[in-house]
Design brief:
The structure is a single chain. The protein is built from 6 helices and 7 strands. It is an alpha+beta fold and 207 residues long. The chain has one domain. Strands 5-4-3-2-1-6-7 form a 7-stranded mixed β-sheet. Helix 2 packs across helix 4, helix 4 packs across helix 5 and helix 4 packs across helix 6.
């Protein structure tokens, strides 16, 4: 029987892809309803893809849902207070839509020094285990400030493994054995790697 990755990359559209596309679409709408770009002084935002990074029990996808914020072409040194205001907002939306999916971690990505979500020169991410996002939504004493302190304390030098407080974005389209579900399509790559630049990045998991 073909693996989940083989089915995602095949000519057919498996049920898992349909489900993840629907969740991504709902999460994207919810994030844009929740975040007024003008009020935050940012360019735009969206839930841009869902990376399928492994196959779990019973063939279920192991995922990394991705939210992305474009901070604007004139931003070279991001306001970290703004970053940490946006991170919990994105996590609450992602967890609301993916809480019953096998999530390895959530990626909240920020592009800057360039236009749009995928045309910037710089990209950084905050990566959190799903338990942190759940705690944000259920524990009144655990707020954005507590999340920031925890991630800054727990982030070590390895930017590949969550928790990551402010690391280079991971390009899931350039990672072995990974498919990225994005807006009715699936992208994949055969070479491991990561990218700091978002120039020319493909949709979904780019940079």
């Amino acid at each position: 029987m073909p693996s989940l990755l083989e089915r995602l990359l095949g000519d057919d559209t498996p049920d898992e892809q349909v489900d993840l596309e629907a969740r991504q679409s709902d999460a994207n709408d919810a994030l844009q309803d929740r975040i007024n770009a003008d009020s935050y002084g940012i360019n735009k935002c969206g839930v841009t893809g869902v990376a399928v990074v492994n196959e779990g029990p019973d063939g279920k996808p192991v995922t990394v849902p991705i939210a992305r914020f474009s901070l604007g072409e004139d931003v070279e040194d991001p306001d970290m207070d703004l970053i940490w205001d946006l991170v919990p907002e994105a996590l609450l939306v992602l967890d609301n839509n993916f809480s019953d999916v096998f999530v390895r971690h959530y990626d909240v990505q920020f592009t800057f020094d360039g236009d749009e979500l995928f045309e910037a020169e710089e990209c950084r991410r905050v990566a959190t285990p799903p338990a942190y996002a759940e705690e944000l939504g259920t524990e009144t004493m655990f707020d954005g400030d507590a999340l920031r302190e925890r991630l800054l304390t727990e982030h070590n030098i390895d930017d590949d493994v969550a928790p990551v407080a402010w690391g280079e974005c991971k390009d899931y389209t350039n990672t072995n054995n990974t498919a990225v579900v994005t807006g009715g399509a699936v992208a994949a790559a055969a070479v491991s790697g990561s990218a700091a630049s978002c120039a020319g990045a493909a949709g979904g998991g780019g940079c």
